[in-house]
Amino acid sequence: MRGESDLLALIAAQPGRMRLLHAVRDHGPADAWIGAGFVRNAVWDRLHDYVDATPLADVDVLYFAENCLGAKVDEAWERRLQEACPGVPWSVRNQARMHLRNGDRPYRDCANALRHWPEVCTAVAVRLRGDALDLLAPLGVDDLLELRVRPTERFHSKPDIYRERLAAKNWLARWPNLQIDPL
Description:
By secondary structure, this protein is α/β, with parallel strands linked by helices. Helices cover 43% and strands 15% of the residues. It has one domain: Beta Polymerase, domain 2 (2-Layer Sandwich), CATH 3.30.460.10. The protein is globular and about 40 Å long.
């Protein structure tokens, strides 16, 4: 895998992931993306030559709507997606309110929110616009494609949270070729 087009081709070739992208496009919030492990795991599985996909702990759906900041709105979207695709561990979050939980200044949009996620390799999302796949990677895809795990700029100031996350995820047990920055 060499770049963004290879990453998008990988996602497009996976019917299960495409089914979820269709569900979000057709039943989710306007202009919503699926990010984090949805993209990361697919790439890391491919780069480790795994045939079986790593199960997703959740499917992170992100969108940006300044006019509806309540958590109940996200829960309603989760229920709607659950009706469209039962059995999927949907996790819908309006990035317009996530700065409150994270102790950051308000985010401007989904791209700005991704810049505040813990790892550079996780700050990647995809969506279907019509029948075309779009990629949102404000920090690029190099870390993801090079199996490099390092904190985003924001998480350099939160080293304990970053380290706790690494320990909880235990990614090396599944993907031994990762290069992890312990910070």
